[in-house]
Amino acid sequence: MTYSVKEAFYTLQGEGAQTGRAAVFLRFAGCNLWNGLERDRASAVCQFCDTDFVGTDGENGGKYKTPEEVAALVASIWKANADTAGRPYVVCTGGEPLLQLDPPLIGALHGEGFEIAVETNGTIAAPEGLDWICVSPKANAALVLKKGNELKLVYPQDEAEAQPERFTELDFQHFFLQPKDNSEAARNVQAAAAYCLKNPQWRLSLQTHKLTGLP
Ligand SMILES: C[S@@+](CC[C@H](N)C(=O)[O-])C[C@H]1O[C@@H](n2cnc3c(N)ncnc32)[C@H](O)[C@@H]1O
Ligand SMILES: Nc1nc2[nH]cc(C(=O)O)c2c(=O)[nH]1
Ligand code: SF4
Ligand SMILES: [Mg+2]
User: Which positions fall inside the Radical SAM core domain (predicted)?
Assistant: First the structure.
């Protein structure tokens, strides 16, 4: 299949349990919960997205015809940036990466020595072989992927089915609340912190790349 890549870049993971770890971010174009157009945001299933995932016009973006081409791109970005040892790490995101990340690409990335992480909205079953799965459930979108390494809930979401209590029995090692970044961000940070203080199963995930200025 052809892989539509919005952009690929080297940075530090800004969120969740792997925060601070150097990684190549591989951002796929397209999402099943929003078409990415501002004029359609208010009618989308997911309305708070902070990311441009439309098209293939970003840094290293393009349409790649084979899994080997994508893996070679990711490896070249790692090698151009990391000076010393450390397990090569790729974070597949989007948009919704599970629309495109398939077993051949997982095989090709492993072939280049990468540990593979994914950031997903949890509406699509995950292929075998992923090394780190972060699920971020969205109100009004049925959750299919009910186990993984971390569950990272954007907070607050008003709908009853997106309250933190709905997720605590699921099979994840880590549970994070990530304050929703919007015009109410400061208030959302305080609300998420207050919830974690009252409910110690949950930890606070701040989007540290927005503090450091990294992408
Ligand atoms: C842009 S999404 C891409 C991956 C996937 N579609 C998903 O939703 O998990 C990456 C992460 O950013 C989170 N996110 C998106 N918009 C956000 C916002 N406004 N504030 C905080 N986190 C946000 C998502 O919930 C997800 O954990
Ligand atoms: N530094 C950095 N960390 C991130 N963690 C998840 C991100 C995403 O957009 O999926 C992201 C991102 O866009 N940048
Ligand atoms: S599911 Fe993820 S990529 Fe899609 S609109 Fe929501 S936050 Fe953005
Ligand atoms: Mg982001």
Answer: 18-215
